[in-house]
Amino acid sequence: MMTKVHRIVGIIFTLLGLYISIYSFTKLEVGTITKPGAGFFTFVCGTGIFISSAIWLFLSWRKKGDSTPFWGKGEWINLLLALVITFVYALVMEPLGYAISTALFILLWQIVIAHSKPLTIILFTVLGTGAMYFLFEKLLSVPLPNGLLPW
Amino acid sequence: METIQSLLGGFAVALSGINLLFGFLGCLLGTVVGVLPGLGPAATISLLLPVVYAMNSPATSLIFLAGIFYGSMYGGSTTSILLNLPGEAASVVTAIDGHEMAKKGRAGAALSIAAIGSFIAGTVGVIGMSFIGPPVAELALKFGAPEYFALMVLGLLLAVFLTSGSPLKGCIMLFLGIFLANIGIDPLTGRERFTFGTLELMGGFDFVTIAMGMFGLSEILLTLEKEVSSEFVTTKIGRLWPTAKDWMESKWAIIRGSIIGFFVGVIPGGGAVVSSLVSYSVERKFAKHPEEFGKGAIAAVAGPESANNGASSSSFIPLLTLGIPCNASIAMIYAALLVQGITPGPFLLNDHPDVFWGVIASMYIGNVILVILNLPLVGVWVKLLKIPFGILAPLIVMITAVGCYSLENNMFNVFAFIGFGIFGYIVRKLDFEPGPLLMAFILSPLMENSLRQSLMLSQGSFSIFFTRPISGSFMATFFIVIIWQFISKFRKSRKKGPVSFL
Description:
heterodimer, A: mainly alpha, 2 domains, 5 helices, B: mainly alpha, two-stranded antiparallel sheet
């Protein structure tokens, strides 16, 4: 399973390297050795990614199969939940504002992933949101999105 | 004499109220992240970059971040010895014999020898830095574009070979780092590169976004997979002061570890992890009873712990004198300085002596603070493990997400942070080391400029890199390293069968 993932990633990297090289060569100006253009460095990078990935892919193809699964039993569940909650947090941060979105984020994380006790959830949601607001908005003078609330 | 005077000036900077406070906070935070598994120094520094950007003084921010970096080396030994749970990678070796000592009721001796060794090596590293730094910076003033390019190429190559188990994976990360740094408007020609018409991509990706994603978020995701035990394991610490026999067995290990750490730390990619591994194998060779290694040998704790602290101090030398970051954590410190308008390199010593000498002096003070923090308060640090990861994780994600937003007050950076977090998670799970990507990202603009300038100077001839003495030496070392890698792989394959480059 792990080998399969390695191969998939190897193919993606190889194609990416190829794409970067072709794009740099055709759309950007590679220039000459004496006067390298905007695409010179990206062309070199693309070629580097392509060659390294192609060799890696070739060697991993020859390697014996590794049966270790990419994820152990149920390992991906918390991971997926964490990503979904973070993504939703990013989506609603501007329209809802910092305070509401952060409180929701902590609340969801505590309930769905950490399975915390109700008192911990309430305390952490209020204190965490407030402490971060104080740190960024007051101490560091970072403007946070207001959204629905006036502050 | 001039060095001593400058150092005294540095102490005046480091001992000023705000710098002393941030130096202490850095050491404290470093100890905490060293103790807590699943949060390394690189992740913590990335997490705090937005906070540091808001600071007005470059000296204060550098003192703060440096404290986190070398403080984490101290803290890492505590949980390695008591719980067999290395808080960060450089303490993995310490756990082998340190925990065996703890099981025999000698945790106190292991902890104290680790702290004392760390203090000695850290101090040796800082003394070396005080005296070696200025001449290196002076030498670097003679560097032109070809020398810089050759040095950066050599540095990145060493980082690839030393930080990652697989040179190929390291190369992929390296080229990806350079590519990511090239996205945006080309500063020389004004042409857009890989922006696809997106306004947010015109300025390119922000280093903080990548660092936070690749180290901060991906580390949280990786830790979420594992069941991190927050169960407090009671281990009797025992007598804290080492016996005369312990001293006799450790003194040379500490000295050797300090020297190894200092030299390995200077090499790009070397750093704390490699130095602790080298020290462990050296101590095993020097040991009168190597069979005791793995069963609680105190030299196996003293050597590696000294080495990782020595390395953490000396890794500042290339940053402050040449402007070359040796590892991912130092690359983040480099970024923090850049944002504050300071370019680390040979001019730093003359242009900003307060920053250069201030951070060196703060390290002397920091080493004393860390011994005081780590030995008597050892019980407090172990209790930190009681904090459930369920509370720490959302806090970290929240700080990083808000930190990314605060960079330009837009959501693009937050989504990019999530994207890099997922990417970092996948590649780290496949044993790719993200360090070279970050180092390449930060060095790429300087590399590109140096290459273009060199080629213009030589009218397109690459011989410029080989005919000038300094750049020629760097390039010769570059090729020697590559040939040596192939020869050693070939030798290994003849001895043990095929050796993987994967």
